[in-house]
Write a structure and sequence with these properties.
With 385 residues, this protein is mainly α. The protein folds into two domains: 201 residues, no CATH class; 174 residues, no CATH class. 67% of the residues lie in helices and 6% in strands. The chain is built from 18 helices and three strands. Strands 1-2-3 form a three-stranded antiparallel beta sheet. The protein is elongated and about 95 Å long. The C terminus is likely disordered.
Length: 385
Amino acid sequence: MFETFLLPVTTALSMFPLIVLIVMLPVAVVSYRRRGRAGGWTTLVFYAFLFYLLAAALQTVIPLPSDPAGYCAANNYASTPQLRPFYFVQVLRERAQGDWSPGALIHYGSVWSTALNVALLAPLGFFLRYLAGVRFVAATALAFGVSLLFELTQLTGLWFVYPCAYRLFSVDDIMLNTVGAVLGWLVAGPLGRVLPPVEPERERRRYATKVTVSRRLFALLADAVGFVVLTGLVVGLVVLFGGPAEGRGPIIAVLAAVWFLLVPVLTGATVGKRAMLLKVERTNGRRAGPVSLLVRNGILFSPLWLLWLALSVDDWDVFADPGQLLIPLGMLVSLFLVGIWTPLAVFFGKEAAPHERLSRTRNVAIVAGPDPSGTTTTVTKVNAS
């Protein structure tokens, strides 16, 4: 019995790293814009909540029948929903037969099933109050809706993936799940006074002005993902409407110029930096122009465009064409500047990286703050470190 209950948890443990990789970037964007940073206690609580949701969802569908057709032909106990409220009380009475001693109760599967139904959504109630500040009525309604969704998933055979219902729909489960969520919400009150407070505004005031290494890396990752998605969409549309499937180099070059040069010149930041509330300025405080941005991004992304040049050479013959030596030499210099000097300067020295020194640019943080008239304006602050 316990193996059946533990299987969804072990499955969630194996799936959770992949889920984290998928949601890490959007979670970081929201965190930086709301709290000024992506780490801390709030992030730990959020990922704990995410793992709990995954484990709770798997608890309602796992284990799955290995042979759906054969299982449905041999089992039909779940085909009719259980719509009698408090039917679990009758089941407990029949099972106990008057013996309600703790030693006997611990061996009753129906007791464990009832207790686990209560415990299933108790963390949901806790997280709704502690993490999101949801009020009692709203939290109860959300818990009821989540429990109903779980039961309908079972009734429909994982939304008609299976030809029959392999888990029983029960109104008792909905009632017990909702009661568990209510208990979790009530516990969150006194327990929340002991745990660290979740105060996004206080974190934002403390961290929003800091241009940290992780913030810059997330901005770079957001730009990389956004640019890849944009390039895929544009190239796909070109091919879809009859364009050539080959010769995509000019298209990628134009898109790169727009994403990493034109947009920052017009707005002061790439899309990824804007998502992280960062912008690029010259060291004198002025907006970076096209030349500065070209030097900055040309150095920062030199390993990529030099690799592109190397792959575009059809016939390598340095004796016939000595100019080809410039590409591997440039690659060595690029790897030193970007792969060695930049990490040492940023991670350990907390100094300007080569692409910032040579372009005389820097990252600055953008934070929202009140002006004297009481309205909200955008205030740009430079990281002190």
